[in-house]
Amino acid sequence: MQWNKTKKAAKQMWVRDKWLYFLLIPGVLYFLVFRYAPMYGVVIAFKNYVPFLGIAESQWVGFEHFRQFFDSPDFLRLLGNTLWISFLGIAIAFPAPIFLAVLLNELRIATYKKLVQTCIYIPHFLSWTIVVGLTHLLFSINGGAIVDLVETIFGVRINFLADPEWFRPMIILQGIWKGTGWGTIIFLAALANVSPEQYEAAIVDGAGRFRRMWHVTLPAIRGTVVIMLILTMGSVLNTGFDQIFLMMNSLNRSVADVFDTYVYQVGITRGSYSYSTAVGLFKSVVGIILILTTDFIAKKIDKESGLF
């Protein structure tokens, strides 16, 4: 009897929302074709893949490629470089959209607020090629505006693009400049749901602007912050190939070489498809573990937080 009621309710829901489900078809097809279907190719990480033989006929080698990767002297160097860039991004770049969203939320002049939002969204639509090109123009040792300015003020001419010590700060600053404005959208959407009555009650209680931000604004976006942090932790080993590859050169390679660039060098330029797939699969497994671990910790701290 209960099964019949559930079946009937499900049928009514399908009939009522049929056009909404119809609109889901392109998205579902996209994920099936471009996300799930290619996952079959992951099996070459456990084979000695030869293109002429195909995936099915290539020799099965088990975890041999993973063993080679972990025993390689490049592993610790790549892991260190990747984690440094990722955790600097989490510590510095991740809070930036939150801070900016809170500041924008405090603006009361709607026209000025929209103008500021439009200006800070623009960098997001620039490709990394353009961003790196602008960086080279500003920081070039020969005529770069920033280099000339630093020399004028401090009397020292620094080659920012070639000095390994400046590579990570420049990567983080590029990420902040390009992504902070766009990252505020989701936090501003969360703040839009805060009832004005909460601010009014805080004002009646004598709370100043800072107190209202601390006790009303920030708690309102706490759940959103936790979810975004969980998703960010899943991509700790994905530092972004385009940006790193374009900023990397022979002088800063010691700190610039990360898993993403290593996969390109080994898989594309050397043709070691199985080995590079094993490296990529390792990154994905670590990402899943970090997501589940961060979600578990978030739920232990606050039961209302988390993804699952």
From TrEMBL:
| Localization of this protein | Cell membrane; Membrane
The name under which this protein is listed is ABC transporter permease subunit
What the entry lists under PROSITE patterns is as follows: ABC_TM1
Organism annotation: Natronobacillus azotifigens
- UniProt domain ABC transmembrane type-1: residue ranges: 79-294
Membrane-topology descriptor: Multi-pass membrane protein
InterPro entries from the UniProt entry: MetI-like, MetI-like_sf
Location, primary (coarse class): membrane
- Which GO terms of the cellular component aspect does the record hold? plasma membrane
Q: Name the family the entry cites.
A: Belongs to the binding-protein-dependent transport system permease family.
Annotated transmembrane regions: 20-37, 83-104, 125-146, 166-192, 213-237, 273-298
Which GO terms fall under biological process for this protein? transmembrane transport
UniProt key word Cell cycle: no
Q: Which domain of life is it from?
A: Bacteria
Alphabetically ordered keywords of this record: Membrane, Transmembrane, Transmembrane helix, Transport
